[in-house]
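Following up on my earlier thread - several people asked me to post the actual chain instead of describing it. Fair enough. Here it is, all 118 residues.
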Amino acid sequence: MDQLSDLNGYWEISQVVSADGSIKEFPVNPYVDYIKLQGTQGHRHKIKVQLGKALTIPESGGEVFTANQSGDSLVLTYKTALSEWSETLTELKPDSFTVRNETGILYRYKRYQPIIVE
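Reply from S.P.:
Thanks for posting it. Predicted structure:
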């Protein structure tokens, strides 16, 4: 749980591996996820990327989640007004993380690096 602060910041999906093993790569994303975690409580916001503009974090909305230890695994449990679900954190590094959802889909994220246009 000490590493959880590594989740803070901007992330983009780099790869999705479906339950049947098929892989979809995401070399460029129109949206990034902003994650803010304090202790075991967090928020995740989807933010639209616009070239030449700073990313703006919404004041409200997003997905509220908690991070809880479940056996040897760390589970992120999300809750919105419309839904509730969980993802198991399978890997966490300063520049990447991976989660598996309840249906077995694996999401690989990499730290977002803005595209600089000169």
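Residues 51 and 115 are 7 Å apart (CA to CA). That should answer part of your original question.
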